[in-house]
Specification:
seven-stranded mixed beta sheet, 232 residues, two-stranded antiparallel ribbon
Length: 232
């Protein structure tokens, strides 16, 4: 079984000027909700169990998924209060049946070969595998440092950076990695978990240079509409 957790509980504050009152993942890109591109790409890689982590306007996402993908093997993990990335993942992991699960954000797309990512995670027997992309001249993302063995060393704060590696949000994680954290406890996956456990767990980078888009701001949301005409 190939499972995926899709984090779709954010408020989408920076996009409200262009998508009004709807979840970010349902923002239309060329007359299709963004989430449909993610689901379709995952189905092509034979992912057969989908766990949607929901919060804000959850009913809209549930209705869309159940209507558009009636045969999808799907579970909805619902936050009753905002849990941040770590808390949302911890809650969703209780629904996972496999030893490891793919986690991604519902507002980002990466044209990665998911088979290669999975095989690397399994071959290296990693606790967490984080996909990084090299990027030039950015200040919207924090940068990630790693050594020659691809072991993650640090997550640095957002700042103007000439060149660095950003976290694309495509992560493989062992199911039981967050068992010591209580359910329904808000915490940041990067700051409160990964940065504090870099020496305790095997956490490596998987470098990928595929096309990447994060529709979290209006400029990149509009850019996705142009880019996707050539991709899909």
């Amino acid at each position: 079984m190939k499972e995926v957790i899709i984090l779709a509980g954010g408020f989408g504050t920076r996009l409200k000027s262009v998508i009004n009152d709807k979840p970010k993942c349902l923002a239309e890109v060329n007359e299709r909700p963004f989430i449909s591109y993610l689901v379709d790409s995952l189905l092509k890689y034979n992912y057969n169990r989908f766990i949607f982590s929901l919060g804000y306007l959850k009913e809209h996402v549930i209705e869309y998924i159940m209507t558009t993908y009636p045969n999808l093997n799907v579970v909805f993990s619902v936050e009753e209060q905002p849990l941040l990335t770590g808390g949302a993942i911890r809650l969703a992991l209780d629904y996972v049946k496999s030893d490891s699960v793919l986690i991604l954000n519902a507002d980002t797309y990466l044209g990665i070969d998911l088979n290669c990512l999975y095989q690397y995670h399994i071959k290296e027997n990693l606790d967490i595998t984080i996909t990084l992309k090299p990027l030039y001249n950015f200040d919207r993302y924090g940068s990630v440092k790693f050594d020659k063995e691809k072991k993650i060393l640090s997550f640095d704060e957002k700042q103007l950076t000439d060149f660095g590696y950003i976290n694309c949000g495509y992560i493989y994680i062992k199911k039981n990695i967050l068992n010591n954290y209580p359910i329904n406890s808000p915490f940041s996956f990067e700051k409160d978990f990964i940065n504090k456990h870099l020496d305790l767990f095997k956490i490596n980078a998987f470098i990928d240079e595929s096309y990447f888009i994060d529709i979290g701001i209006p400029e990149d949301y509009l850019k996705a509409s142009l880019d996707f005409k050539n991709i899909f």
